[in-house]
Amino acid sequence: MPTKIILPESELPTHWYNIIPDLPTPPSPVLHPATHEPVGPGDFAPLFPMDLILQEVSTERFVEIPEEVREVYRQWRPSPLYRAHGLEKLIGGPARIYYKYEGVSPVGSHKPNTAVPQAYYNAKAGVKKIATETGAGQWGSALAYACSLYDIECEVYQVRASYDTKPYRKAMIEAYGGTIYPSPSNNTEYGRRLLQEDPDTPGSLGIAISEAVEVAATNEDVKYSLGSVLNHVLMHQTVIGEEALKQLAMVDETPDFVIGCSGGGSNFAGLAFPFLREKMAGNINPVVRAVEPAAAPSLTRGTYTYDHGDTAGMIPLVKMHTLGHQFVPDPIHAGGLRYHGMSPLVSLIKEEGLIEAVALQQTETFSKAVQFAKVEGIIPGPEPSHAIAEAMNEAERAKESGEEKVILFNLCGHGHLDMAAYQSYFDGELVDYEYPQDRIDDAMSKVPVVAG
Ligand SMILES: *Cc1c(COP(=O)(O)O)cnc(C)c1O
Q1: Prediction pTM value
Q2: Is residue 228 in contact with ligand 1, taking CB distance under 6 Å?
Q3: Cα separation, 55 vs 111, whole angstroms
Q4: What is the pLDDT of residue 452?
Q5: Nearest to residue 53, comparing CAs of 73, 71, 30?
Q6: CA 257, chain centre distance (Å)
Q7: What is the pLDDT of residues 401-441, one digit of tens each?
Q8: Taking every pair of C-alpha atoms in the chain, what is the biggest distance, in angstroms?
Q9: CB of 139 shorter than 6 A to ligand 1
């Protein structure tokens, strides 16, 4: 049985943390997709409201959270930190394990931490409609919920493979008043072209991003919103780590390990960045580790170089760990982790040696998720199951060495809408995917060559 460490509502963070001014080197400039020249804030104006663009390039260490946003956060924040007594007993070693639980939000994941401020700033700028993409559907439902709060229309492009296999996220998005299309769709020029080439394409996150961006770029009254990867998204998520720092202090603990799963990097960064700030200041010295799926191993096997975040190559080039923007990952069940790239900030801190990364196979993560659910009660999403599995592996290592390690991980969402994936696991249908080096080499051969 877990025990809960509750932060009083008066301790709800007042500021988001921006890690950029604390980094040893500044982030690389964002480049125009055609000219490869650095782009300025104005170039993003067709896609985002200016408040968010300014946050994207901000060098302010702490950015105030608007009171209107904190009001919405209070519906589920501060979120609980749990001491995993059940898991500790199961493993039977000296490790003490804690997890921050973001499944308490209305949609069941960390995504509303950024969906709400993004919808808020769009509403403030008078925006009436937002287009976005979604993989497993977590982001689409979070943005649809946030848009319904501010009376904004929400149009979601969901990766075809997930649209077909996870029908309840679609119903959820519709319950919040959003509109949802399988991607590729007939709504965009890019989608129509892909459907003509291959009517049965399963789609990918990179393709869905291209479609949502096309809708925003070609309609003056529509903006675009991204649920991960970008600097302002990671910054919004730091409420997770700020709360966890205080919660661990309440029980006099200092973490030896800070662990999160990483698809685009937002829940990982949300937990890890405030701890990295304290680490860089010399106050604590945890190992900070991102966990990704072996089927989409951008941080562990990708190349750190300029690439597009979308498949069509419409959006600007960012320097990141990438498997190539044409890379289509195998259909693992952790839909939120099926992305060819990684956030530029997480990529940079990996390159600087501030964090580590590992990749795990899905049969291992499901097996550990089930062990976790039996002793802790929460059925985790397939994505955070990667963080759980790595935390359990670390606790096993502590048992072998007899060292009293303190392990913190992010349980960024529950798996209630992923039970079909669990059923496949119980039916023995889940397979592991080998790292497809030839496909990655092929995709990397199409990455643009940027001079200098
Ligand atoms: C979206 C999502 C992810 C992957 O995105 P990150 O930006 O890497 O956090 C992981 N887990 C859940 C539950 C998600 O909804």
Answers
A1: 0.97
A2: yes
A3: 18
A4: 57
A5: 30
A6: 19
A7: 999 999 999 999 999 999 999 999 999 999 898 777 888 88
A8: 61
A9: yes
CA 236 – CA 238 distance, rounded (Å): 6
- What is the pLDDT confidence band of residue 333, given thresholds at 50, 70 and 90? confident
Of 217-226, 340-349, 363-372, 442-451, give the lowest mean pLDDT range: 442-451
Atom in ligand 1 nearest the alpha carbon of residue 412? 13
Residue written as token pair 């869905």: 208
- Amino acid at residue number 141: S
- Residue 416 · residue 379 · CB < 8 Å: yes
Neighbours of 94 (CB within 10 A): 14
DSSP-derived letter for residue 108 is S
Q: How far is the CA of 400 from the centre of ligand 1 (A)?
A: 31
Locus of tokens 């969402």: 413
Closest C-alpha residue for ligand 1 atom 2? 336
Q: Are 20 and 26 in contact (CB under 8 A)?
A: yes
Q: What is the pLDDT of residues 318-327, one digit of tens each?
A: 999 999 998 8
> What are the tens digits of pLDDT across the range 338-373?
889 999 999 999 999 999 999 999 999 999 999 999
Residue of 141, 158, 209, 228 to test ligand 1 pocket, by largest number of atoms within 8 Å of CB:
228
Measure the N-to-C terminal CA separation of the chain; round to a whole number of Å.
55
- What tokens does 414 get? 């529950």
Rounded to whole angstroms, the Cα distance separating 62 from 72 reads 20
Tokens describing residue 174? 């519709």
- Which CATH code fits 4-9+65-108+235-444? 3.40.50.1100
Q: What local confidence, expressed as pLDDT, does residue 2 receive?
A: 85
- Give distance in angstroms: CA of 154 to centre of ligand 1: 20
Question: What pLDDT score was predicted for residue 171?
Answer: 95
- Give all strands of the β-sheet with 81-83 in edge-to-edge order: 3-5, 81-83, 96-101, 406-411, 257-261, 287-293, 356-360
Pocket test for ligand 1, best of 105, 383, 411, 414 (most atoms within 8 A of CB): 383
Beta pairing partners, 208: none
Cβ atoms of 229 and 264 within 8 Å: the answer is yes
